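hiii, so i know i said id send this last week but things got crazy w the move. better late than never?? heres the sequnce for the chain we talked about at the cafe, plus the structure i predicted for it. fair warning i was half asleep when i ran it
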Amino acid sequence: MTYDVAVVGSGFSAIALTINLLRFLPSSASIAVVGDDPGFGRGTAYRTEFYLHRLNVPAARMSVFPDRPDDFVEWLRRQGRAAFPEDFASRGDYGLYLRDTLASLLRPRERRAHVDFIRAKATACVHCEQDGLVFHLDNGGELRARTVILALGVGNADLPLPKDRIDSAVGARTIDNPWRLGWLSRVGRTDELCIFGSGLTMIDQVLSLRAQSHRGRIHVLSRRGLVPHPHPTRRAAPVTPDLPDTREISALLHALRRQVENGADWRGVVDGLRPQTQALWQSLGAVQRSRFLRHALAWWNVHRHRIAPEVFARFDALLKDGTVTVHAGFLRSIDRDGDGANVRFRQRGTPDIVSLHADWIVNCTGMERAGIGHSPLLTEMRNRQMISMDELGLGICVDRQSRVLDPDGRPQPGLFAAGALTAGQFWEITAVPDIRVQAKALAEEITTQIARAAPRTARIA
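okay and structure toks below
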């Protein structure tokens, strides 16, 4: 069988695409969804059941449908939740919302496109001129589709240290992927931890530890020692940014700072910038993009990706009472120290080397910058010259219509990408409000292409 559309992936981008394809495709169309995650669409983020794992965006902006902004809030109310548009709902509830939304679209079989969910990983892809593309699957099967959307997301980042500087003896006390939450039960009540990374993942894990009755000290180490800022209890109105004509990063940042110094709420300025972020990124040259990633990214992340006020209050209390200490520095080595580890790092801004003991090492550096190293499929496609890497390592090259480009910059017929893989083109494409817009646009474009091809297909038949 040759499917009209294949979605390769099983995270949020994949479920958003599947939901929108079901909305727009005719009932005569066929869809294959290929992925090996049993919690399709919920991924790591939305499978958690811990009540303090909250969304970082208010409920009013988390509908999976950009043209139905109240959908998630209305779902919460149908579940008996006392939900308001500016509430920060639990991520577990959001996962259930995605599940229910997909299920509701799948029920009317006679009025929607045919869908097959294929529990497998795509490992290789080859062109097939007449029928589109052919994928080899790790279950020994094949998949044929006229149009393919790559929605593979990204993998976990490695520890920020070469492997030869990490004593292999500390492996049993190192948590490479903290989202496999079984590790929490192995931590003793008074054990000391060293967490690498000071972003959203770190805060999630610190609060999870406290909920498990852990009371030991926690050291947090990152290069700049910055932690996410909170959303205000009452959201500030977005402020239209007053940007200069130049696209030099330092001038742009200076203009934003000047607005804040003149009295604008910095949260309002950041929120006002959001609708322009993709266009602004696309207007930057490679040199300015690189400067932003080197010098401004860490500050952008803590101001742009804020956390719920309740979550911040709990974390801030741990900072103030000394349970959590945040260090800014550069990791030098991890050696065995009794049953634990000795962590050595250079303090930022000084030549001083600091050592601290930890019973556990936890990697909370988050997701790797979008690339292909985590995916055998993407690696194989690059080797076949079907895709090319973004020059800054931000995923793969696509055009503004999300069409995948070959190494010569030409769109590959019938091949699209979505979500984090397209960060090189869109930058802001990892959060729900951005991905849902991309998913809807792709579904509409593919529906139009299928409608155009239908008369030709009928004549051939």
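btw DSSP finds twelve helices and 15 strands in the chain. thought thatd interest u
miss u guys!!
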